[in-house]
Specification:
Layout (H helix, E strand, L loop, with lengths): L2 E5 L3 H6 L9 E5 L20 E3 L1 E7 L15 E9 L1 E2 H9 L5 H4 L5 E8 L10 E6 L2 E7 L7 H11 L7 E3 L7 E2 L5 E6 L2 E7 L2
Parallel strand pairs: 1-10
Antiparallel strand pairs: 1-2, 3-6, 3-11, 4-5, 4-10, 5-7, 8-9, 8-12, 12-13
Length: about 200
Amino acid sequence: MKIICIGRNYVDHIKELSNERPKDPVVFIKPDSAVLPNEQDFYIPDFSADIHYEVEVLVKIKKVGKHISPEFSSLYYDQLGLGIDFTARDLQEELKAKGLPWEKCKGFDGAAVIGSWVSVASLENVNDVHFSLSKNGSVVQQASTSQMLWNIDELVSYVSRFFTLKKGDIIFTGTPSGVGPVKAGDVLEGHFMGQSMFKIGVK
């Protein structure tokens, strides 16, 4: 299983981090060891003092595909989900300043939360899915997939130009604005079209 992540896919999030709007999707990889096991709490790693949550809609690939045209992308997935791309923001800023890869700040153990899955057949429009993240009961992020710079089908197509997609691969489609830090004792809960998809504690 590959975890393929997209950065800078919502305009407001680009602005809040003072990043440049990209001409193409920003792509990076998390190893499968980054997946937080189900029902486990997230433990803040000792190498960062500034871990941020980033809620994202997930796409689960259902069959092998390469060089997929956007008009055929929908044939390669049948489930969407919700997760968190945890980011060591302090480490990321240090790496970006030096022009170095992001893996250490994005791919560490537990950095990928994968919640429940929903059948695409149950959704009216994958390009207008509403989702949110609450921290300690208060909504901190909320958006719709209609706000993406590149929609789901475009992302599947783009990623397949560089990586052969295989059954079980997961694409993290980017986070909207509202990202922020976590501390021990926080509780994070993600909602997708009003349905709770995950709830985790921070230690």
